[in-house]
Amino acid sequence: MARATARHILVKTESEALRLKEQIAGGADFAQLARQHSTCPSSRDGGNLGSFGPGQMVPEFDAVVFSAPVNEVQGPVKTQFGMHLVEVTSRQD
């Protein structure tokens, strides 16, 4: 069964997500930005969501996590919770 580990930054607006993604592309530390800006409780752990399988996250999130390249920041991804920047840190298909 497929498993993935990922981290994310959850913010309210697409513009904020895009601004943070630009900072990451410029060399900013993902985990540090997650601690500073993410509204998810995972922010305390740098946005780390741990390991999970298909169907354990909302569908929009799952679609990215189980298809995107590993170690590349994706997004913004819109869900019922807000706008996410997502980085898959490992995946076993």
From TrEMBL:
Domain of life of the native organism: Bacteria
Family indicated by similarity: Belongs to the PpiC/parvulin rotamase family.
Tagged with keyword Ribonucleoprotein: no
Location within or outside the cell: Cytoplasm
Role noted for this protein: PPIases accelerate the folding of proteins. It prefers amino acid residues with hydrophobic side chains like leucine and phenylalanine in the P1 position of the peptides substrates.
Major site of localization recorded for this protein: cytoplasm
UniProt keywords, alphabetically: Cytoplasm, Isomerase, Rotamase
Protein name: Peptidyl-prolyl cis-trans isomerase C
Keyword Isomerase annotated: yes
Single GO MF descriptor: isomerase activity
PANTHER family to which the protein is assigned, alphabetical: PEPTIDYL-PROLYL CIS-TRANS ISOMERASE (PTHR43629), RHODANESE-LIKE_PPIC DOMAIN-CONTAINING PROTEIN 12, CHLOROPLASTIC (PTHR43629:SF2)
Organism: Streptomyces yaizuensis
Positions of the PpiC domain: 1-90
Entry-linked InterPro entries: PPIase_dom_sf, PPIase_PpiC, PPIase_PpiC_CS, PpiC/parvulin_rotamase
